[in-house]
Amino acid sequence: MTNPNKTTLNRDTLVPLGMVVSICAAVVWLNTQINSLHYKLDMLESKFENQWTKTDMENWSLKLRLKNPTIKLPSTKGEDG
Questions:
Q1: Measured between alpha carbons, how far is 80 from 14 in angstroms, rounded to an integer?
Q2: Average pLDDT for residues 11-31, to the nearest whole number?
Q3: Tally of structural domains, the chain
Q4: φ and ψ at 75, to 5 degrees?
Q5: Residues in contact with 64: Cβ distance below 8 Å, sequence separation at least 6, in sequence order
């Protein structure tokens, strides 16, 4: 008794099986590349988030000068005093 629904691996099924393996390998490789790009973008974003801008420096200098009037600080460009 032979079962007509039974599948076997033979020469006819090797090409589709090879294609499946190749496609899976390509998907894994693409996923690795995308994760690498995502990591690099995250690093760039974190660098720009933590940047201390010139405006931040001027504001900090002004607050320091207002809270400590006895300290002599050099004036920054953009400040009047």
A1: 80
A2: 86
A3: 1
A4: -75, 145
A5: 71, 73
Residue written as tokens 């090409």? Answer: 15
- Domain assignment present for residue 26? The answer is yes
Domain that holds residue 50: 16-67
Q: Could you read off the pLDDT of 35-75 as tens digits, one per residue?
A: 999 999 999 888 887 777 888 888 888 899 899 988 887 77
Quote the CA–CA distance of 25 and 35 in Å, as a whole number.
15
In a domain, 40, yes or no: yes
Q: Give 2's DSSP letter.
A: -
* Ordered DSSP codes for 52-80: --HHHHHHHHHHHHHH-TTS--PPPTT--
The answer to the question of residue 4 being in a domain is no
Measured in whole angstroms, the distance separating CA 25 from the mean position of its chain's CA atoms is: 23
Residue 51 lies in a domain: yes
